[in-house]
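Could you join me in thinking about how sequence relates to backbone shape in a protein? We need material for that, and I hope you will provide a protein of your own picking. Label the sequence line and the structure token line clearly, so we can match residues to local backbone shapes. Would you write everything just below, so we can both look at the same thing?
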Amino acid sequence: MAEALVGKWNFLSGDNVDAYMDALGVSEQLRELARNIKPTIEISKDGDTWTIKTIAGDKTAETKFTGEQEVDTVSLIGQQVKAKLKIDGNKMIETQKVGDLEIVIERTVIDGIYTAKMRTKGVEAVLQFIKA
């Protein structure tokens, strides 16, 4: 069940993150900063409302999702984002739209490791986290 995602998670590893950020159009300066930051994720659930909080250095992004309603939020780099969350068994699938760009983030926990697969423009990055 997706409830396994609830908790505080510390960064463990990242794969193909630079190529993913390049596909997003993130500047080299911001990519350089991101390479040295190990994010923490906090996920909570209250009734049918999920909250995802990402802390990276001195930046924090928090989004609350109720059901499958689209919400307006702001990314860690200050972009306005329209986001939607879907729970599919043990997966939490978030779809974000930034202008014409679509981003899909699939979150699961397998063997105690929280894995986030992030895809855009045919490029996938995988981040892994361990419970704090």
Q: What stands out?
A: The radius of gyration is 14 Å. Helices lie at 17-24, 28-35. The chain has two helices and ten strands.
